[in-house]
Amino acid sequence: MNMYCQSAFHQLEVVIASLSEIIGQLTEEDMQLRPTRGKYSIGELLAHMATIPAADGYITEGASKEKMERFYETVNMKTKEEILDHLFHNFAQLKAQFEYYTEEELQEETTSWWDVRYTRYEWLVQIVAHMYHHRGQLQAMLVHSYNKDLEVLLFE
């Protein structure tokens, strides 16, 4: 694997390890908490995060809006265990996707269904940013809305 991709995947491993710790400390009741009406609950946000590596991996390859809609229709996680299983599986799938890209393939631009063009490497950087963004949201929800500071190391 390209050394820059290795570094990006290391950062994904950091965020996934911290998510795993956070999920381990939550109760099933915590998963139902919804700090803002009409927005994700804690469990829904975690399910979304578990989906990101697979969904954004498809987007990296130029998946159509219709393909993404079909993919999201298959996503159904309710328990902490289901979320963790999907998170680890989808991360492994994304890593396998990037494992053997050549330098040329990493620099090849692909277009999302909403017309954004990035190289495959840029899509990987975006995936890292996407995961950290939502982990920050999760941390803020837990700390500021529910006074739950789980004291999980968020960075190395």
UniProtKB/TrEMBL annotation:
Tell me the organism. Halobacillus kuroshimensis
Organism lineage string? Bacteria, Bacillati, Bacillota, Bacilli, Bacillales
Q: Where is the DinB-like domain?
A: 11-138
Q: Which domain of life is it from?
A: Bacteria
Q: What is this protein called?
A: DinB family protein
Q: Which Pfam families match?
A: DinB_2
